[in-house]
Amino acid sequence: NDIIILRRDGMKQQIIPVYYANIKQGKSLESNVLLESGDVIIIP
């Protein structure tokens, strides 16, 4: 199960998946995003 970042952009909400297990192994580094003010992190 992976981490999800919820980000508001005006009236729209983005769902950004973060593949932590892959990042830890040096894979899927594009999902290693910088957090912004107002982001909500969901860790199952």
Report what the structure shows.
This protein has 44 residues and is mainly beta. It has one domain (3-42). The protein contains 1 helix and 3 strands. It has one helix spanning 20-24, and strands spanning 3-9, 12-18, 40-42. It has a 3-stranded antiparallel β-sheet with strand order 2-1-3, with no helix packed on it. β1 and β2 form a beta hairpin. It is elongated, with a radius of gyration of 11 Å. The mean pLDDT is 88.
Keywords:
1 helix; mainly beta; 44 residues
The largest pleated sheet is described as: 3 strands, antiparallel
| Annotation field: number of helices | 1
Could you give the order of the helices and strands?
Answer: EEHE
Uncertain runs with pLDDT below 50, 5 residues or more? none
Strand content: 35-45%
Shape: elongated
Q: Kindly, what is the distance between the CA atoms of the first and last residues, rounded to a whole number of angstroms? A: 7 Å
What is the count of β-strands? 3
